[in-house]
Design a protein that fits this description.
The chain is mainly alpha-helical and about 160 residues long. It is built from eight helices and four strands; from the N terminus they run αβαααβαβααβα. The protein has a single domain (about 5-145), classed as P-loop containing nucleotide triphosphate hydrolases (Rossmann fold, 3-Layer(aba) Sandwich). It starts with a helix and ends with a helix.
Length: about 160
Amino acid sequence: MGSGKSTLGKRLARKIEYHFVDMDTYLEEQEGMEVKDIFSQKGEKYFRELESGFLKNLCTGDNLVVATGGGAPCHGNNLQIMNEKGITVYLKMSAASLASRLEKARTIRPLIEGLDPASLRRFIGERLKERESYYEQAQCIIKGENVKPAHVIALVFGNS
């Protein structure tokens, strides 16, 4: 959450002429409600099941760049599916960097809505600690601050 997956994903897809799909946006369209409403009305478990279904169905396509939600790789066999069907990239960032970026987005992110700055930093640190072992299984790990599509292209596709 807050690492820039969607922003970088759009730029990367455009550069390599792939289609871009933001998982959260896709799920919102399928459910007819925002992610925060899915969480509040149907719960996180339901949302995580939607993510898993999305990956199983969407990962049959070619030439896609998919920005998943931050929790998607950590549930069920989602990470295994992603690693088998494509190339996974982890935009690694410190908890402090993520908290700084998310400070302005607290009201639109269901898991952090309404947290004060100290609680936000604590939440991000705890979440990273919980998820890091999953994220580290990505096929490519890139420092997330100020990453450029060309860097991802070089790492994923080589310098050719």
